[in-house]
Amino acid sequence: MKIADHLNRTVTLKSTPVRVVSLVPSITETLADLGLFACLVGVTRFCKYPSDVVNTLPKIGGPKNFDIQKIVDLKPDLVVAVKEENDKEQILRLMEQVPVFVFDINTIEDSFDMLQRLGTIFDIRDVSTYWIKRIREKLENYNPPRLAEEALYMIWKNPWMAAGKSTFIGSMMQLAGFDNLITGRYPEIDENEMSRAETILLATDPYHFKESDRVELQVKLPDKKIMIVDGEMFTWYGTHMLLAIDYLGKAGQ
Fold first, then answer.
1. Which domains, ranges and CATH numbers included, belong to the chain?
2. What span, in angstroms and rounded, lies between the C-alpha atoms of 24 and 79?
3. What is the mean pLDDT of residues 102-119?
4. pTM value?
């Protein structure tokens, strides 16, 4: 089988993969939801769902510092990666030894395309179509909040970094009804720039903002609405979107 990944690379597979390593937590959850948990032979230490599956699997490190030799020793038919989540140099080295399929997910439609391609790779098109249909139906029945609030979504501290409109987070912010002030992807910003926003979202992932961070920033920007939000609901694509849509409908309230 030959199939193009999101980098327009042709990935050649001898047969339907039965030994798979996932380098991204949301991919791990999606593969399990698609009924492919028996194919998983390795995941990252940050993979959490489903817990009864990932707790029993070998851990190959983190998304950006995985152990290449450990992955090779697992003899995977396929490694599934994401351009933004995984270290480019490590992925290039891994590609020299095992088949690697790379997704590049910046929009909700990219997430649907990911599900569709996984259906093709694993010959489970009916299952992936089922999940796509469920999520699309949820979106069709979704009543987005009309907040018209100019907002920032903070992903890091020291230095402060925000997610821009051209990211998957940006797409999910729009779905939640926020008007993202940041163009581009993940620029560093200062507190003067933060003062332009009406609402500032402090995410629990990848930087785990806590209530103490919110209080500290609120003192500096007392007239702003500053909220802690569940980072997984803004950053996890694939089947997790089914949960995220309900969460986002309430995120701005």
1. 2-105 (3.40.50.1980), 149-251 (3.40.50.1980)
2. 10
3. 98
4. 0.94
